[in-house]
TrEMBL record:
Residues 233-369 form the FIST C-domain domain. Residues 36-232 form the FIST domain. SMART domains: FIST, FIST_C. This is Uncharacterized protein. Pfam families: FIST.
């Protein structure tokens, strides 16, 4: 029995309107429910498309009532594949959870207030305490402040997951979807109801340390680093990485400088990779803020590093309760990792066991209250079966009172029995036993193989409740 349905569609049509419409139509083909039961649609599209036309194509199929969120992405992530120059659409449908949306403009002008407003409106529109919040934001150079604003409203107990929309490393063609197209915005989606988010991130470790040399930032302006150890930052970087070439050669060698990244270690020993994510006018530009006096370490990021990011993220998800298969796993992969080795990223996606997996490549990953730049982060959505079984069980027993006695008797008979034996144990006719079994089958508390009836894992959760 499916408690949460997820389906996806892809299109690489050159026409943005058609691409949006085709991807949505393809997603609907694999959905067992009707449009009325769709909770939310995720839309990621190439930065080279006209986003207004892509969104119009999606709405051409779905209409204007279903919430649509997402944004630009160099690659869409769909079950083991990186989709370039295309549109990917993911659809979530369930009666067991609800969503509320919020959007705020002016992320680069008043980032903290933007974060507060977007999440406040999302929670208000949800109308209940959220189980998690997803966030999509523009590349505005104040992402940490946006997260701080969200935390101001949420506190530290409600998990946050999401990322910064990306483009083709131009850092100026990013956009966001929230039933419309926005730039310089923050979009928040609050999820409430009977779902459990399992969130993880693959972090860098000292194993990737390339140099033990002490490196101190001696001149900086937030993300722009001018001097390291009192020396011009570019010259120092070329020396410590053994780069043989001009400043222009380094600026053009994106894979080299993304593969040799500086990191900062916080007071808890956690390492945050910073960059450079690009080099401009002879200055190292980092992906998140640093301060003068920060000590840096140089890390080598390669194919093995990417595999480790995936392995750690998957392991954390698998080890987190509850131990139910995910309905969908949302994935945010750093765009910098795909530049280092697209092949390794695709290889890891294809071997990932948390299917279906769906997401986008980012300029920054948001996990809980933290902001990362070189990570693989995941959020598996699983149904809260304990809560659902209680609600559905009460509804079923209220409507069909005899089902309580019936499932208890099946349990007494070892958890599985033939219907004829069940009828004898209950002292009823076999036909009546079939009638009693029908609601249990309908609600998913038992399964039937010919004349054999067996209590499902979902039914075992109900038994824990009705035995009390």
């Amino acid at each position: 029995m499916k408690f949460i349905e997820f389906s996806y569609g892809i299109s690489n049509d050159e026409n943005p309107l058609k691409a949006g419409a085709y991807a949505t139509s393809n997603a609907l083909k694999y959905l067992d429910t009707s449009l009325e039961n769709i909770n939310i649609v995720f839309l990621y599209s190439s930065p080279d498309y006209d986003p207004e036309e892509v969104l119009n194509g999606v709405k051409l199929i779905l209409g204007n009532k279903i919430p649509i969120i997402g944004g630009s992405s160099k690659f869409g992530i769909v079950d083991g594949n990186l989709i370039e120059d295309g549109v990917v659409v993911g659809i979530l449908a369930s009666k067991y959870f609800h969503v509320g949306l919020g959007v705020a403009l002016g992320a680069s002008i008043n980032p903290r207030e933007c974060g507060r407003k977007a999440v406040h409106d999302a929670i208000k529109n949800l109308g209940m305490l959220p189980r998690m919040v997803m966030v999509f934001m523009d590349y505005c150079k104040f992402e940490e402040e946006i997260i701080n604003g969200i935390v101001d409203v949420l506190g530290f107990t409600i998990p946050i997951f999401g990322g910064v929309t990306s483009d083709n490393f131009e850092f100026k063609k990013t956009y966001q979807y929230c039933n419309d197209v926005y730039i310089d915005s923050v979009v928040c989606v609050a999820f409430g109801g009977d779902i459990v988010p399992k969130i993880s991130v693959g972090k860098i470790t000292d194993e990737n340390l390339d140099s033990n040399k002490k490196i101190t930032i001696t001149e900086t302006n937030k993300r722009y680093v001018y001097e390291l150890n009192g020396v011009n930052a570019i010259e120092y970087y070329k020396n410590i990485t053994n780069f043989r070439g001009s400043n222009q050669n380094l600026e053009n060698d994106k894979k080299f400088y993304l593969s040799n990244a500086f990191g900062v270690t916080d007071s808890n020993g956690e390492i945050y990779l910073k960059g450079p994510i690009f080099i401009k006018n002879g200055v190292l530009v980092f992906g998140s803020n640093v301060m003068g006096g920060n000590e840096l370490s140089l890390f080598s990021i390669n194919e093995e590093s990417i595999e480790n990011f995936f392995e750690k993220s998957v392991k954390l998800i698998n080890n987190a309760p509850p131990n139910y298969p995910p309905s969908v796993t949302f994935c945010c992969i750093s765009s910098y990792l795909t530049e280092i080795s697209k092949e390794s990223v695709e290889k890891c996606l294809k071997s990932c066991p948390l299917n279906p997996i769906f997401g986008f490549t980012t300029y920054g990953e948001v996990v809980l209250k933290n902001y990362y730049n070189y990570t693989v982060s995941m959020c598996s959505l699983v149904p809260d079966l304990a809560s659902i079984s209680a609600k559905e069980g009460i509804h079923m027993i209220t409507k069909y009172p005899a089902t309580k006695e019936t499932i208890l008797k099946i349990n007494e008979l070892g958890g599985s029995t033939k219907i004829e034996e069940l009828a004898k144990a209950l002292g009823i006719h076999r036909r009546t036993a079939y009638d009693r079994i029908e609601p249990l089958l309908q609600y998913g508390f038992v399964e039937k193989d010919h004349a054999l009836v067996k209590i499902t894992d979902f039914g075992k959760l109900l038994l824990k409740i009705i035995k009390k």
